[in-house]
């Protein structure tokens, strides 16, 4: 239960509507004294919402192609190209919207085939989920019209994880039956296999040819350089891809109408208790992949030919990196990558380490060298075949998020498309984040977090006043809070509210053991860790213990509601499209996460009582803390029925609450108007509860007791 990043990843220039631009206090000018939370800030909600968001990027000959979500076009995703002279053109404009809905989260929605006649774009269109092909021409000015490659299905047949090998397009195909859900018996979840099916397919002249079936989920179809073998990842319910997957390989041959499997697939690695990710062929005899068998997603290699010759024996796996490193992450979107090959036998590796990212160069001899980069966090998008440059979507403590081309020799990064212009706002209003580890005073258990203290050069708090602090709990719950310049956080810190971004037990980036702390303990460990973080700030004399706040989306919304109904630590909370109960949720959510709760809480029907006991909806009698609820009414992941049940329960219990719905939003708000309204309303809600003024108090109507 994560959410796609919204378009407001970084601020756009300009003062808040109706407000003069602010700058640092003039020399000799005293800062204005005002309650924390009420400070004037040049960073408006409109600025946060207007930023673009790069979703993927590829080197295409001497150009850089990337997809960007455009907030001024209701979040439509367009493909653009940057030419060698630095000019940017649109490859795919108009009504076209590049986005896959496989697993609902999508991923791998476009790829490029470089041909003698120029690059050819293959993509998935959001509205109908059909595959299209476009030949934009060498200059991109004669794009023509995209050609559909798959028949209409009303969006029931979807494609993702697109990749080109030897001129053949491979993809994950997902098909939904007419009856979206098939009920299970005896109260267990519906049978997802009866509602959705998936297979690996290859595009031929006759259309899409099915090549691989057999597991309920599949990812990363990869063909070896000589075209004789296919590798892929597969898994089944109730596992999630970070719980247990298997690496498969099989011989393939073309019978004249497209590729087909020869013989039975061979399992090279993985199990129900081992997560295997991103298989890539270094050569036709060397297949590399990430596996967390060591406790971290470390890099391994295997010879499929040798493994086949030793059928019946455990394949010999070579550990590429020692000591192990986390070269991997939770597979929420298809096509994710954490390493890539470049140059004569080299590879670039992206390591996740305690809320930050490091790049390593792996030489042909197997030696790994950490590279100096300006980034604190990054996602690897592509590596140039020549090995000199990489494309990363990165950020730093003092560096705006965006797409950069990184020189691997010098370590210098050039911005290709920032999520906002560099002159977006005065650096004096941006927080100075730092990593912190707190310890539970009773158990000694460590909790990792990133702290963003309040910062505004024109203001300071009242005499003796400690700032309120907002605990952010990410979604997933396997996501990870990273160090970076996050304008969403700065919206609060520049107004005098500190932010602590909590990597509670269950978060990625700290190894499998840390993720497994949440197994069976969702609603317990995550809540305890959020409490440990804010109490740690209080103990350090940094936060006001009476003005602690908590906010989260999706799985983070569950943690917010659980914290408010099981502790008295927080003064108010905000739930964005959060899970409120479990029994109905597991029958109403989508296939990909329909058995997720098996691991987070327990399987049905054995854990039915635990489902009822943990559900915040069933514990509202303990709740006296005001809460604000935000919900997109087109959300297929956490359906609106969850928020509606919560609203009815809050009304019946007489708890003070606010309730805002957004008709045209799904899971993770994309439209600028929605982001603006929700940010302003959240701050105004905190102002109503804590007693400070904001320009948007009129947006909040408190219902229930104390309104």
TrEMBL record:
Chain ranges of the Peptidase S9 prolyl oligopeptidase catalytic domain: 490-691
Domain (Lipoprotein LpqB C-terminal): residue spans on this chain: 123-293
For this protein, the record's InterPro entries field holds: 6-blade_b-propeller_TolB-like, AB_hydrolase_fold, LpqB_C, Peptidase_S9_cat, Xaa-Pro_dipeptidyl-ppase/CocE
Question: Which GO MF terms does the UniProt record name?
Answer: aminopeptidase activity; serine-type peptidase activity
The annotated region (Disordered) lies at 1-41, 134-158
Signal peptide span per the entry?
none
Q: Which UniProt keywords apply?
A: Aminopeptidase, Hydrolase, Protease
- Which GO terms fall under biological process for this protein? proteolysis
Q: Which Pfam families match?
A: Gmad1, Peptidase_S9
Name by which UniProt lists this protein: Dipeptidyl aminopeptidase
The scientific name of the source species is: Sediminivirga luteola
């Amino acid at each position: 239960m994560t959410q796609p990043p919204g378009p407001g990843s970084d601020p756009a220039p300009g003062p808040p509507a109706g407000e003069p631009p602010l700058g640092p206090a003039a020399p000799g000018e005293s800062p204005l004294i005002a309650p924390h939370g009420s400070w004037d800030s040049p960073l408006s909600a409109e600025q946060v919402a207007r930023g673009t968001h790069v979703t993927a990027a590829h080197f295409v000959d001497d150009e850089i192609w990337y997809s960007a979500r455009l907030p001024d076009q209701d979040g439509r995703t367009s493909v653009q190209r940057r030419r060698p002279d630095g000019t940017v053109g649109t490859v795919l404009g108009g009504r076209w919207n590049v986005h896959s809905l496989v697993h609902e989260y999508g991923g791998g929605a476009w790829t490029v085939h470089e041909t003698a006649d120029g690059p050819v774009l293959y993509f998935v269109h959001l509205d109908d989920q059909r595959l299209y092909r476009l030949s934009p021409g060498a200059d991109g000015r004669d794009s023509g019209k995209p050609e559909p490659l798959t028949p209409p299905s009303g969006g029931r047949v979807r494609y993702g994880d697109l990749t080109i090998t030897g001129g053949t397009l491979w993809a994950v195909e997902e098909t939904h039956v007419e009856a979206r859900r098939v009920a299970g018996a005896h109260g267990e979840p519906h049978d997802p296999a009866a509602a959705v099916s998936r297979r690996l397919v290859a595009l031929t002249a006759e259309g899409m040819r099915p090549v691989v079936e057999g597991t309920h989920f599949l990812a990363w179809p990869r063909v070896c350089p000589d075209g004789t073998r296919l590798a892929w990842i597969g898994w089944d319910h109730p596992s999630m891809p970070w719980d247990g997957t298997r690496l498969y390989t099989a011989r393939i041959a073309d019978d004249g109408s497209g590729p087909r499997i020869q013989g039975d697939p061979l399992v090279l690695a993985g199990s129900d208790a081992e997560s295997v990710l991103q298989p890539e062929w270094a050569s036709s005899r060397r297949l590399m992949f990430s596996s967390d068998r060591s406790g971290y997603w470390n890099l391994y290699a295997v010879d499929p030919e040798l493994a086949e010759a030793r059928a019946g024996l455990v394949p010999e796996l070579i550990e590429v990196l020692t000591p192990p490193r986390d070269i991997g992450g939770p597979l929420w979107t298809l096509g994710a990558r954490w390493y890539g090959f470049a140059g004569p036998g080299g590879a670039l590796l992206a390591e996740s380490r305690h809320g930050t990212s490091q790049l390593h160069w792996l030489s042909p001899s197997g030696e790994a060298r950490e590279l100096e980069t300006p980034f604190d966090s990054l996602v690897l998008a592509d590596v140039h075949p020549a090995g000199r440059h990489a494309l990363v979507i990165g950020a730093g403590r003092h560096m705006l998020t965006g797409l950069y081309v990184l020189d691997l020799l010098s370590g210098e990064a050039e911005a290709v498309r920032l999520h906002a212009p560099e002159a977006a706002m005065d650096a004096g209003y941006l927080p100075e984040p730092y990593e912190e580890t707190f310890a539970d005073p009773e158990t000694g258990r460590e909790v990792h977090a990133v702290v963003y203290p309040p910062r505004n050069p024109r203001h300071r708090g009242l005499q003796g006043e400690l700032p309120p602090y907002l605990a952010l709990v990410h979604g997933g719950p396997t996501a990870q809070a990273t160090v970076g310049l996050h304008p969403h956080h700065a919206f609060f810190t520049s107004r005098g509210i500190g932010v602590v971004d909590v990597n509670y037990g269950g978060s990625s980036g700290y190894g499998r053991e840390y993720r497994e702390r949440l197994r069976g303990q969702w609603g317990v460990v995550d809540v305890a860790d959020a409490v440990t973080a804010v109490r740690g700030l209080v103990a350090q004399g940094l936060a006001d213990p009476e003005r602690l706040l908590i906010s989260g989306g999706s799985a983070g919304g569950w943690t917010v509601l659980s914290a408010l109904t099981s502790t008295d630590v927080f003064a108010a909370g905000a739930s964005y499209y959060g899970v409120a109960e479990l029994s109905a949720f597991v029958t109403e959510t989508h296939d990909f996460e329909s058995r997720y709760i098996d691991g987070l809480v327990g399987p049905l029907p054995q854990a039915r009582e635990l489902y009822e006991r943990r559900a915040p909806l069933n514990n509202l009698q303990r709740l006296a803390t005001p809460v604000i609820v935000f919900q997109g009414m087109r959300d297929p992941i956490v359906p609106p029925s969850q928020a509606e049940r919560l609203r009815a329960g809050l009304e019946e219990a007489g708890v003070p609450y606010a309730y805002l719905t957004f008709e045209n939003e799904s899971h993770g708000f994309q439209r600028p108007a929605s982001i603006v309204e929700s940010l302003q309303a959240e701050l105004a809600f905190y102002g109503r509860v804590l007693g400070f003024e904001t320009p948007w108090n009129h947006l909040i109507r408190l219902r229930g007791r104390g309104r």
